């Protein structure tokens, strides 16, 4: 075991060639990050999950109810044993051939069967109340951690910065666990990769004493998160103008920090200036590779944001976020043509479609 640990903590992997672990020991004059501090992240991640459950139940839920956000789910599909059997045992997305067979078997038109499957899929989606509670938790944490972390940017390394790092690491570990029970979205795989890369980046930057640049990276990426969650909360509460304003602010901050400051300032420093100062070493390559992965994800999300903004400008509204996990039918599908029987579409909460989550305006960002 000792041999494995010695191999894992090899100085020539983690540190520049002229630095040893002894150089990073705490002294009366200087304090350095210690790798063993990272073990605290696991119990803290569990505690954070418990705090989240309490917060959503006793803080976020009462706030949602006060804003008249109820736990109403999407429209319930009409009970049908044959379609239910196909849905649960065979497929949730029947192809054209199966739709035609079901149409003959049930004497329903194909569009009504398509609508049934769409409604049935949406039945498994979470309510607006659950969405609001999740967003309020992320908003509260994002606002707190950003204001807590930004104060370290102009200060020397202190024990408080170590706590900030451990808290951020604990949060991402909690997301790694909770993402399997949270609301599932189309970019689940991308978010899973993001959480994993964030954990690795925080760990690497802490162990090899890159806490200064790590703090800057965390603050840059936290700066827009609270605005996005606030925009979602306004969307769920149907405060459309506030939602639109917050989304514009979020888009501006996101693109400025992640496509401007991060690559031009941070990546330039970690890739080129640090090369000249300390030179490359194995963990340096890993650290910068992870930063490039993060930048790739930033470009992907920026593309989605710009796409939403372009839709808002060209059409005056956005029906839903491209990451949305709630399906909607087109206007053509929702207007039932004369068919064999009256399985027509209904409206929910005043909106046409399969659910009441989709809002008009420039900020329907139900992701």
Features:
two-stranded antiparallel ribbon, elongated, 64% helix, mainly alpha, 367 residues, single chain
In brief:
Helices cover 64% and strands 1% of the residues. With 367 residues, the protein is mainly α. Strand 1 (347-348) and strand 2 (351-352) form a beta hairpin.
Note the topology.
Blueprint (H helix, E strand, L loop, with lengths): L1 H7 L2 H4 L26 H26 L14 H9 L6 H11 L3 H14 L4 H23 L8 H20 L9 H20 L3 H12 L2 H12 L3 H38 L4 H34 L15 H4 L12 E2 L2 E2 L15
Antiparallel strand pairs: 1-2
Describe this entry's structure for a reader.
It is a single chain. The protein has 367 residues and is an all-alpha fold. It is 64% helix and 1% strand. It has helices spanning 2-8, 11-14, 41-66, 81-89, 96-106, 110-123, 128-150, 159-178, 188-207, 211-222, 225-236, 240-277, 282-315, 331-334; strands at residues 347-348, 351-352. It has a two-stranded antiparallel sheet. Helix 3 packs across helix 8 (159-178), helix 8 runs antiparallel to helix 9 and helix 11 packs antiparallel against helix 12 (240-277). The longest helix is centred in the last third of the chain and has 38 residues, at 240-277. It is elongated.
Radius of gyration: 25 Å
Largest sheet report: 2 strands, antiparallel
Task: Give the helix proportion (percent range).
Answer: 55-70%
Content-based structural category: mainly alpha
The count of strands amounts to: 2
